[in-house]
Amino acid sequence: MRSTFWIVALINFINALSFTILIPTIYIYGKQFHLNEFETSLLFSIYSIAQFFATPIIGKLSDRFGRKPLLILSLLGTVVANTLAGTATTAGMLFFARFLDGVTGGNISVAQAIITDITSPEERVKGFGVFGAALGLGFVVGPILSLIAQQRSIGTSFLASAGIAVIALTLTILRLPETLPVAKRQVSKLWDLGLDKLISGLRIPGVGLLVFLNFLTGTTFTMFTFAFQPYYLKVLGQDNKSLTMLFFAFGILGVFMQTQGIKVLTDRWKVSTVRILFLGLFFRSLCFGLMPIFPVIGYFVVVGMLFAVFNSLVQPTISTLVSLNTQPGEQGMTAGLNASYLSIANGIGPVIAGLMIDQHATKLAEMAELAGAKVDPSNYVSYAYPLYAAGILTFLVLLLAVRSQQQYTPKPIH
């Protein structure tokens, strides 16, 4: 079991690399195709919306046919899609590539189901902590590789992402054993692909509420992530290289918290998984609201570091709680359901943020920059609005999580 766990953790790390290479570049790449702020937000959203519908299907199929074949299919889609994106010559081709990547992008939910297959309930929070740390380590190494790829072109980042996904695909084929025995697989009709679970899954005791909380936290988080980049580049006057290095620093802190911080909280201080979730949501809310108060780079970095430490607690704890509230034969389905609602949140958040930004004012500012004229700072003030909104909404999510905790707190194991 232990060797399989580390193989899937390594696959998840490599998969995370292929994703995090793109994070610092998608916004700027969209601008190269002359997209405005709202159109650029759709570049983020089309991937997530496609993933919303595809992920429960992939999760359901992994419960039926096994984890390995579906992980292979998903990684293959990432390879093809990012190759198309990196060689795109039109905005339409770029949007299609992002859509294709979303349709086949259920690999995280399958990997989560594998973790569930090979860990006991007592080990699961630590297992998901290491799983999250693999993602965090991707946030450490991915931006560095992105920075190297950007020396050639922004599109090269997508080609590098495709190349790294090939490594994960090869490792999955050659080294990953199947973790779901045939006897435990769900037998259902061929056309029953699990889309009905997008609605009925919300009625599963405990799981439905957690999925809804994850949807809300995902929406507020992606409101932040979309506005974060233009705020850093335009309001704070920084460049894409320093943005990439900031993501690198965030990744280091996230890995530390997910490998050591969670262990200290659970083992030494005996903090429950539910309380860890509350802690993460509180500091995430606080940092979102504090970030845009003073448009000074030093202040922004300090608040950002505090954010990186506690933000890394949220996703592993929600995934753990979903797993602990799920029956053994439905782990793939609920992991897919959870990932699916997180995907649609990732699609909604950027659109909300894009709509809050003053398109006319930012367009005037961009035209002034191109003409070499002085830019009025007030033209960029709306980049702060999604950050404030994300902070307020995250605090409301925290209140909901606290008030409804009895519905999803796992019963003690005797």
Task: Give your account of this protein's structure.
There is one protein chain. The chain is mainly alpha-helical and about 425 residues long. The protein is about 75% helix and about 0% strand. The protein contains 17 helices and no strands. The relative contact order is 0.16. The model has no long low-confidence stretch (mean pLDDT about 85).
Strand content: under 5%
- From N to C, what is the helix and strand string? HHHHHHHHHHHHHHHHH
Q: Count of DSSP E strands?
A: 0
What is the radius of gyration? 21 Å
Pairing-aware structural class of the strands and helices? mainly alpha
Uncertain regions: pLDDT < 50 for 5+ in a row? none
Distance between the termini: 23 Å
Instruction: Report the major sheet.
Output: none
- DSSP helical segment count: 17
Kindly state the mean pLDDT as a whole number? 87
What quaternary form is this?
single chain
Shape, please? globular
Helix coverage percent of residues? over 70%
Describe this protein with a few key phrases.
single chain; globular; about 425 residues; mainly alpha
Concise overview:
This protein is mostly helical and 414 residues long. The chain contains 17 helices and no strands.
Q: Which helices and strands, and how do they pair?
A:
Layout: H1 2-20, H2 26-32, H3 37-65, H4 67-86, H5 91-103, H6 107-118, H7 124-150, H8 155-175, H9 197-200, H10 207-235, H11 240-268, H12 273-290, H13 297-311, H14 314-324, H15 331-356, H16 359-371, H17 385-403
